[in-house]
Amino acid sequence: MPRHRTSVPIARRLLRDFLTGLNARQHYGDSAELVLGELLTNAVLHARTPRERQVFVRFGLTASHLLVEVHDAGRGLPLPRPAGVDSECGRGLLLVARLAVDWGWRAREGGIGKTVWALLAPETGQGGPGCGAGVQA
User: How far apart are CA 135 and CA 127, in angstroms?
Assistant: First the structure.
């Protein structure tokens, strides 16, 4: 997908279609779309890569979890940052941590960029602290 803000709603629609096709939308829908939107928005806004570089999203569903991945060519690490009371940015990864069972990042194969992933359980919203590096999805 293009590394552009317009890719976010497209990716959400792709996830919605993926989950609907597997009769799993009612179990993951809104939380999964929010997590994907936050991860992809971070890749679009904060990955320091040439504009022509693209981002890649991938989803996987097992009997017990949904895996959402966003791949980008940027070197920067996804770290939650404190946001001021009036800040319009800076809460995305905190939302991901709250909604996901776990989340983290890993270097991409081939050494260019990273993959940021989140693992969601059905009926998420009561997720744990999501401290990141525990699960290599």
Answer: 15
To the nearest 10°, report the CA torsion of 28, 77, 87, 130.
40
DSSP code, position 112: S
Cβ proximity of 100 and 120 under 8 Å: yes
Asked if 132 and 105 count as a contact pair (C-beta separation under 8 A), the reply is yes
The residue with tokens 């690490």 is 77
How far is residue 101's CA from residue 1's CA, in Å, rounded to a whole number? 26
For residue 61, the cross-strand partners are: 66
The answer, as to whether pTM is greater than 0.70, is yes
Per-residue model confidence as pLDDT tens digits over 76-87: 777 666 665 665
Distances, alpha carbon 8 to alpha carbons 34, 41, 118, 134, in Å: 10, 7, 16, 27
φ/ψ of residue 130, rounded to 5:
55, 60
